[in-house]
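Quick one:
INPUT:
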């Protein structure tokens, strides 16, 4: 399993990965590191909009990252406590933040908290790999996909990792 530390920087990285390539997200994260030396809530809040943009962070993601930083400074989000929470409790806590949705939470649960029974239904790579591998209809519903993944419980995260590896390694037909 891929792992990530339970830090503010990790959640910033996951936010940066939303709807872009992993390489683009990593480039933005590296720029932020160069600018701040250490990605902390306090450091992020010192950056102007222009400085965030120069680090390849969109206006929208800047708002999301600042919102997370403020919530952490105010004590509304405590990452150490998240590790002891149930998946549902983590989801209820994080979903309140603007820009943090189910995909971001799923990735956080899987890679940071190492939860073994998550299928990231909002992840196109995992879903498309599943459709291709199982020869499922392109029109399959979310509920039907979740029904297929139910048989993998309590190891849906492991199955998701296999699907991602499959997605990255098997050439797609043009």
């Amino acid at each position: 399993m891929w792992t990530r530390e339970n830090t503010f920087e990790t959640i910033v990285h996951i936010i940066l990965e939303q709807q872009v390539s992993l390489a683009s997200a990593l480039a933005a994260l590296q720029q932020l590191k160069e600018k701040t030396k250490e990605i902390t809530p306090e450091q992020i809040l010192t950056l102007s909009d222009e400085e965030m943009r120069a680090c390849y962070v969109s206006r929208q993601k800047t708002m999301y990252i600042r919102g997370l930083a403020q919530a952490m400074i105010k004590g509304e989000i405590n990452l150490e406590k998240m590790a002891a929470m149930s998946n549902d409790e983590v989801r209820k806590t994080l979903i309140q933040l603007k820009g943090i949705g189910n995909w971001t939470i799923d990735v956080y649960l899987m890679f940071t908290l190492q939860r073994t029974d998550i299928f990231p239904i909002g992840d196109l790579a995992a879903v498309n790999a599943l459709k291709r591998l199982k020869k499922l209809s392109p029109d399959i519903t979310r509920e039907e996909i979740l029904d297929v993944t139910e048989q993998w419980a309590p190891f849906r995260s492991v199955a998701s990792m296999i699907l991602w590896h499959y997605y990255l390694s098997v050439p797609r037909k043009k």
